Amino acid sequence: VTANQQVVGASSPHLIHVNPESPDRAAQIWDLLGDRRDLTVDDQTAIHTDTVHRGAKRFAELASGRLEAWNGSMDIDSTEAALFALAESVLTRRLAAALAPALHVNPFAAWEPPATAASAVDKVGGYLHEWIAADDTWLLPAGETWAQACRSALAEAEEALDGRTWGDLHRLRPLRLGSTERLTLGPVGGADGCVMATMHVAGVSTDALLGSTARYVWDLADRRNSGWIVPLGASEFDDSPHVADQTARYIAGELIPAFPRPGRRAAVDSSG
Q1: Backbone phi and psi for residue 93, each to the nearest 5 degrees, phi listed first
Q2: Per-residue pLDDT at 271
Q3: Is the pTM for the entire model greater than 0.85?
Q4: How distant, in Å, are the alpha carbons of 26, 140, 174, 180, 227 from that of 272?
């Protein structure tokens, strides 16, 4: 199992990661795999599209209130998922505001592409759930607990929710290198902390700006059962009918046959 997490311990002499992701996604995959040895292509596809956000579950347990019974699933039709994401952004901005001014300056921003020129808010959002999991309160005001911080952020988020669901907030709007056009491709489930990594930037935007560049499932016993999908399409040109003709199936968690059977072409939704 690899999900961009750190795969070696602190004592390892080898540099494997510079900026690893939280171990939550990898842990979720291990739990979904369990001890099974009879997994099918459909089982693996379902794992790829799992929407449980472990960081969100920890946040919900601490914040209680309206999120108390929520299971942490970042589903399109979930108002709880939307409420969590708004509260997460409130808390991220509060913590970033507490940083010294010098830490808000990225000295490499002029040379970095927009997708990697991370601001202080981006960085705080990226580590927020690891700090909560470790009960590391270094950015909180003296004496404040994570439970208090989460409850306060939740109260502010509830005022802004206005009945919206996660699908209302979480649209696929990918950052594409080499293109100034931002496609808006409809609501999508998942989030940056889910196995279905449709990544938003807490404190900046709830849109899905980044994510898995492709999903593959290979059946080593019969390769004709294998499948793949990309979030957009096979073309990089905005005026091509193939710029986003796989998006609907990507969002739905479907795969396109990697090796179509003789006499049958892979069907691709060309409606965009």
Answers
A1: -65, -40
A2: 44
A3: yes
A4: 32, 45, 14, 19, 20
